[in-house]
Amino acid sequence: MAKILLIEDEASIRRVLVKILSEENKDYEVVEAEDGLAGMERIKNEDFDLVLCDIKMPKMDGVEVLEATKKIKPDVPMVMISGHGDLDTAVNTMKIGAFDYISKPPDLNRLLNTVRNALDRKELVAENTRLKKKVSKNYEMIGESEAIVHIKDMIEKVAHTDARVLVTGPNGTGKELVAHWLHQKSDRSKGPMIEVNCAAIPSELIESELFGHVKGAFTSANKDRAGKFEAANKGTIFLDEIGDMSLSAQAKVLRALQENRISRVGSDKDIKIDVRVIAATNKDLKKEIEDNNFREDLYHRLAVILIEVPALKERKEDIPLLVDHFSKKIAQEQGINEKQFTKEAIDKLQESEWRGNVRELRNVVERLIILGGTEITDEDVELFGSRF
């Protein structure tokens, strides 16, 4: 049921509006307030799906109510009610954040359409917020160790900028999670997040994959094709395992970063791009530079912000939290009851070196949940926890 607050100092208009709204939809619960102060008190203490607010009122006018509401409950849509002389003010309230305005005396169809549209928008905003929280939670790094707290702090500071980020660390530590978390918390979160695994693409195809190609650029180029950089426009491109990229592709990536433009393979035409670049590698790029496998100028372009993700053996205090997180998630995915791990089982898991890092731990937890008893013990870990 949609709960609507009507703030109007003229009792006759309140009665008309309540009657119209109540007859339109039995699921509308309309609450009344006789002036701005009374309305503001209800907004502070109750949750509403929509507020209809007169502009000219004693004690506290509608503009003041709107400004105060936007500070404490910014997601609540407000529709302003304007008299003939308040039209300019009503238009200005849209700039402050009002959803819309209706004039007195209210036109029936306009009123009802405005109310329906405002409630639909409120529901859409709420759903988007829920989805964003769900996505952010899926990509959140689990842990309270000093290293993970430092990474979380870095992400909070860096996410809302366009600074390029280089994420380093061994395989399986969660570098991809860092990249996704940076994107989801950024101002580009509504744009695309395009991932490229540079190690998985043959060197002769990497340039076409990144920058696209035109028809006839090479034997199998049967039509024009956009690349990953174009697909990531207004969003983020994540170049995973960038240490495996060929030198020729590195040169083109460097140009893209320097000039914010790319050209497709086989074309001289430049295409302007607006892309944030996050890169990741498990290699020591400084050593790769010394061995002439990686361009030093590209490294300095990418490594504006460096985030190093530690191996799991360096943050074993996070293992209990990771086990709890994985066991809940796996039980949900498998459609089975969640299983508890004994203290001895956790202790046993903390003794391992975890050469495969967090990825390996997740696999072991899944194996234990599927094959272990109703409670996972240290004996289960001995029996099923081996990585071989």
Task: Describe the model.
- With 388 residues, the chain is of the alpha/beta class.
- The chain folds into 3 domains: 2-134, Response regulator (Rossmann fold), CATH 3.40.50.2300; 142-310, Rossmann fold (3-Layer(aba) Sandwich); 313-384, Helicase, Ruva Protein, domain 3 (Orthogonal Bundle).
- Helices cover 47% and strands 15% of the residues.
- It has 16 helices and 14 strands.
- It has a 5-stranded parallel β-sheet with strand order 2-1-3-4-5, sandwiched between helices. Strands 7-8-11-6-12 form a 5-stranded parallel β-sheet.
- Strand 4 (78-82), helix 4 and strand 5 (100-103) form a beta-alpha-beta unit.
- Helix 5 (108-139) runs antiparallel to helix 7.
- The radius of gyration is 29 Å and the shape is extended.
- The model has no long low-confidence stretch (mean pLDDT 89).
- One of its GO terms (molecular function) is ATP binding.
- It holds the Pfam family Sigma54_activat.
- One of its GO terms (biological process) is phosphorelay signal transduction system.
- This is Sigma-54 dependent transcriptional regulator/response regulator.
- Residues 141-370 form the Sigma-54 factor interaction domain.
